[in-house]
Amino acid sequence: MVEKMTRYSFILLNEETESFLRHLQELGVVDITRSRKPVDERSASMLENAGAEKRALSTLKKVDYRDDPDRQAIEEAAKRTECSTELSARTSRAVARIAELQNALAGATRTAKARMPWGEFDSKTLTDLAKSGLKVRFYTVPKKSFDESWKELYPLQKINEDNNNVWFVTVTEASSEYSFPVKESPAPGGSYGDAIAEAENIRRDIIREKGTLLGLADHIQDLQAEYDRQLTELDLYLADSARETAAEDRINVFTGFAPSGLDSRLKEEFDRMDILYMAEEATEEDNPPIKLRNNRFASMFEVLTGMYGMPEYKEYDPTPVLAPFFMLFFGLCLGDAGYGLVLIAVGAILKKKVASLAKLAPLVMTLGVGTFFIGIFMHTFFGFDMLTMGFIPEWMKKGMLDGEVGGFPAAMVLAIGIGVFNICVAMIMKTACYTHRFGFRNTLSTWGWTMLIVGGIILAGITFLGILRSDVTKWIFIALAVVSGLGIYIFNDMKRNPFVNIGAGLWDTYNMATGLLGDTLSFIRLYALGLAGGMLGSTFNMLGEMLMNSCPVPGLNWLLFAIIFVIGHALNIALSCLGAFVHPLRLTFVEFFKNSGYEGSGKAYNPLSIKKEV
């Protein structure tokens, strides 16, 4: 649910402003209305500096040279690195320098490779020969094209050869006429040893810069503290920049919001500070920030609501309804009890071993639990059909979904049924929310559609179960259609001409008919994804069994099966989890939110506080 907010207006003298804002930071619960982007050159500079600190943090957290062939030399260079000041600037320079040096090293390596066949020579000697009137020409030819008789006809010296090429030179007087049956090659710019020495110098420079980064990585905590400090100062500055001034800039006026549950504590603090303030219940027109409050289960799914957008202040919080549906969608898309156990194990590992992802661990484990039970219902365990397993009790098999309904697979019918139920719940939520926000008179069209569709589905279900006779059902449906039609076509806007209302109702009918059909059919993806993942898992099992049966070596056949089983199902879990997250998210963001009328245009609660983490 959306927490109620209290709107605070603070009136302060200019000299009281800074101490007041810093006190609010210490309290950490008041969301001061402030700019969300730089408002002047100073705040732009502060934001740029904070961004540089964050980029440096990201870079240093990834520094790991344990597998580098020059690890020992890098660690020695790190010990000689002094890291007292300018941590972010030095990190940026080191990264840029390493990239530059690696490009230079690649060029030097290519040069050394090109010079290697020519071996070692003294460039000064070539220069002296040229001064004395002699010219040295370089040639490279395929070995099969080299003619040994050339040695008799020309002053030729073979330098090197391999299985493919021959490298040689000729020395002649520069002033004499000269021709050779092979095209001359470019002269090397220096000797092979010079190129190797240059590459080695560059490699030493790279080691030194990597050592600098490794040394800077030991000061991540200092860099983190500086980043937090800069964010705090920026937040404070933006809050201060949002003030309204009066009385020749001597009085500042601030507006802030805080959860109503903290009223007594905050009023006590503000009274102690001896400042002038006013507190009143926030209204939708104030556009207060949104803070969600849900139970332990639903709160895990608040991150999904935040991905779409926070509700407006008087709008409903979709998280409590979104949570069970998303878990159900996810479980149906993954559809394997074994994969659910894997997710539970992954969540436990994230919680204990990966601090940065610990907050997501409960969600991963919850989705794993849902997948496990839904996988049992769909009778799939690591691609094996549980209905064919003899050790599964018969009472458990009776609770598993199997067979057909009306000539269609039961799983597909279930997916469509869940889609219909999801859309009905969305329409009921939309009707309740719109009535609360805009009043009953202004939502008669919404009531009409909800009564017609949801009421019609409920009536059809009751009739199918034999609770009502068909003739009674007919008259109830006629009455329902008449009442709904009045709301849809006649009274959809009480202030508008009835003929205009009829036209608008017909247009809504077209949109509703085409939209609902497409929305309902979209839920077939729950069946399709579960079927595809199950078939792929079964295929890996079949491949493993084929290898196991074809291998005559005892023990090795089981090893081959285990390799195929582990690698195949690991790939299948990765692919299936991606689909099981993206497609339920789409069903929620498009089908559910559209039919529930959810807008999600609110702004998240962001109290002025001292930053604790990135």
Number of DSSP helical runs: 21
Helix/strand-derived class? alpha+beta
Oligomer: single chain
Query: What kind of sheet is the major sheet?
Result: 5 strands, antiparallel
The helical percent reads 55-70%
How much of the sequence is in beta strands? 5-15%
- Please tally the β strands and state the result: 12
Distance linking N and C termini: 27 Å
Query: Could you tell me the radius of gyration in angstroms?
Result: 37 Å
- The overall average pLDDT, rounded, is 85
Shape summary: extended
- The low-confidence parts are none
List the helices and strands and how they pair.
Layout: E1 5-13, H1 17-27, E2 31-32, H2 41-61, H3 71-79, H4 87-115, H5 123-131, E3 134-142, H6 150-153, E4 156-161, E5 165-173, H7 192-217, H8 220-241, E6 244-246, E7 251-259, H9 263-273, E8 276-281, H10 296-299, H11 302-308, H12 319-334, H13 337-353, H14 361-377, E9 380-381, E10 384-385, H15 394-398, E11 404-405, E12 408-409, H16 410-438, H17 444-464, H18 470-490, H19 498-522, H20 524-550, H21 556-596
Antiparallel strand pairs: 1-7, 1-8, 2-7, 3-5, 4-5, 6-7, 9-10, 11-12
Can you walk through the features of this model?
This protein is of the alpha+beta class. Among the domains are: 35-108 and 194-241, no CATH class; 122-189, no CATH class. It is built from 21 helices and 12 strands. The protein has helices spanning 17-27, 41-61, 71-79, 87-115, 123-131, 150-153, 192-217, 220-241, 263-273, 296-299, 302-308, 319-334, 337-353, 361-377, 394-398, 410-438, 444-464, 470-490, 498-522, 524-550, 556-596; strands spanning 5-13, 31-32, 134-142, 156-161, 165-173, 244-246, 251-259, 276-281, 380-381, 384-385, 404-405, 408-409. Strands 1, 2, 6, 7 and 8 form a 5-stranded antiparallel beta sheet that branches. Helix 16 runs antiparallel to helix 19 and helix 16 packs antiparallel against helix 20 (524-550).
